[in-house]
TrEMBL record:
UMP binds at residues 51, 71, 132-139. GO terms for molecular function: ATP binding; UMP kinase activity. Homohexamer. This is Uridylate kinase.
Length: 235
């Protein structure tokens, strides 16, 4: 396997499947199957999942809600998604741990770096919930931060698009897909890969990002084996 330890970033919206909001059990089960394929081959897996299918703090703020309050609500949404994913993974026989940046001892361990690394070494899947635990930071930033902290080999950003394009491929059919692009070129071209804080943190720590289509069966396994799937962002 090309990658021994990965940080998989999933969007909350991805869990909706064909629904308008909430969690689609069918999509959860599909993701669990994809994750199981690489888990059985010994890849150590950490996961950060967004909360946009339930609540977005920034959207709440745009409707007059206090931004800090909204962001904390968004963090709790990521915990709900983390619990749902944990349940789906354990149903398929995988050992998991949910760690959260906010203390919710009844349902999850508090985030402790050394404990998280130990779980990974024991081949338990670790799901990180509640973002960074701070308002004004996205789950993209949380994903890169946790990836750096647990010494992941790569950030795998699973989306509904098969990579990074020169323009939005859903709006312009002539948009060009990049197989490889440097951090510097992403910034020069103003491409929307992750928010700036997350992207800069990844660049500073020389942690590559792969953006790929998580909904295509087998993609996760192919990436971990080293196949050219999606777009690689590196130095």
């Amino acid at each position: 396997m090309k990658y021994k330890r990965i940080l998989l970033k999933l969007s909350g919206e991805a869990l909706m499947g064909d629904r308008q909001y909430g969690i689609d059990p069918k999509r959860l089960a599909e993701y669990a199957d994809e994750i199981k394929q690489i888990h059985e081959l010994g890849v150590q897996i950490a996961i950060v999942i967004g909360g946009g299918n339930i609540f977005r703090g920034i959207a709440g703020a745009s409707n007059g809600m206090d931004r800090v309050q909204g962001d904390y609500m968004g963090m709790l949404a990521t915990v709900i998604n983390g619990m749902a994913l944990q349940g789906a993974l354990e149903e398929k026989g995988m050992l998991t741990r949910l760690q959260t940046a906010l203390k919710i001892e009844a349902i999850a361990e508090p985030y402790i770096k050394r404990r998280a690394v130990r779980h990974l070494e024991k081949n338990r899947i670790v799901i990180f919930g509640a973002g960074t635990g701070n308002p004004y930071f996205t789950t993209d930033t949380a994903a890169v931060l946790r990836g750096v902290e647990v010494n992941a080999d790569v950030i795998l950003k699973g989306t509904r698009v098969d990579g990074i394009y020169s323009e939005d491929p859903e709006k312009n059919k002539d948009a060009v897909k990049f197989d490889y692009i440097s951090f510097e070129d992403v910034l020069k071209k103003g491409l929307n890969v992750m928010d700036t804080t997350a992207f800069t943190l990844s660049q500073e720590n020389k942690l590559p990002i792969i953006v790929f289509d998580m909904n295509k069966e087998g993609n996760l396994l192919k990436i971990c084996k080293g196949d050219n799937i999606g777009t690689v962002v590196n130095i």
